[in-house]
Amino acid sequence: MFAKVWRVVLDNFHPFVIAGPLTFAYHEAVYFGAWTPWLAMDQFEYFKRWKIQPDKTPSKEMVMKCLTKLLKSHVFIQLPMQMMFYFVAPYFGFSLAMEALPKSRDLLWQIPVFFAIEDFYFYWVHRGLHHKRVYKYVHKIHHEHKFPFGIAAEYAHPVETFFLGIGTLLGPLFFAKHMVTLWVWLFFRLVETVEDHSGYDVPWNPTNLIPFWGGAVHHDFHHKTFEGPYSSVFTWCDWMFGTDKEFRKHQLKLRGGSESLAYPAVFRGAPNERSLPSKKVD
Ligand SMILES: [Zn+2]
Ligand SMILES: [Zn+2]
C-alpha cells in the first residue's frame, strides 16, 4: 500500500515540496481530522458521561482564538521546522527513495520506540517549562486552557512548539530512514496528542488496551491543576520520578478509596464522579 501511494507522491512532487509543504498539509489534515470526532461529541449531551470535566465546555471565542493562534504557529514555526528537517535529515541517512521504503514489520517496533523516546524527552522538557522562573514566559500560554479540547494540544508559545517539536522528530532522526516512516509516526503522534487534550475518556477507545497509556485522564488533570503528571504519552515517567502523587490522590478519591487494579499500567475508565455509580470505600 505504501509503495503505490509513495510512487504517486514521488512522480508528482519535488523532494523539497514533499518534505515541506506536503508534509505540512498532511499534518493539518491529520491534526484537524483527529479533532472532529471529539468536536462532534461536544455537540451531544449523551457523551457528557465520559467527559472528564463534564460541566466545562469551551466557548466559540475560545475555539476561534485557538484556531487563529494555531494557524499562525503552524505556518511560521512548524512549516520552517519541516523545511529545516529536509536539509538536516540527509546527514542522518534519511531518504525519500522508492527503494528505501520501510517495511511494515519495521514500523511495528519503530512507532512504539518513537513514543517512548518522545515521552521521556517531553517529560523532562515539560517539567522544566513548569519551573517557576520560566513558566510565565513560555508554558503559561498552553495552560490558558484549564479544560482542554482536542486542538488545544498545539496551542503554545513558539519556543515551546520548537523545543517540544524536537522531541517528535528525535525518534525518526535516529531510527527512521524514510519520509514515509515520519508520516506514519506523525499520524499516530497527532492522534495521540489530540486525544490527550480531548477532554473525554470513552470506554471504546482502542488506546484503553495499551498498557501504561496515560490518555486524556492523565493530561487533563495536569491542565486542571497545573500539578504533575507531566508525561505526554505513558504513565511510567511520572510514576518513577514521583510527579503523579496529586493525580493518584484524585483518582483514589474519585474511585471512593480504591485505586485501579494495576496502576500505573491500567487506571482508565473513571472520567468523572458520575461515571462510577457503585463507589465502595475500603
Ligand atoms: Zn504543563
Ligand atoms: Zn497540554
TrEMBL record:
Keywords in alphabetical order, please: Membrane, Transmembrane, Transmembrane helix
Q: Which GO terms describe its cellular component?
A: membrane
* Superkingdom of source: Eukaryota
Question: Does the keyword section mention Transmembrane?
Answer: yes
An example GO BP is: lipid biosynthetic process
Q: Which GO terms describe its molecular function?
A: iron ion binding; oxidoreductase activity
Does the record's keyword annotation contain Ribosomal protein? no
- Which residues span the membrane? 83-101, 107-125
Q: List localization entries.
A: Membrane
Q: Which PANTHER family match?
A: STEROL DESATURASE
Q: What is the name of the protein in this document?
A: Fatty acid hydroxylase domain-containing protein
Organism equals Ostreococcus lucimarinus (strain CCE9901)
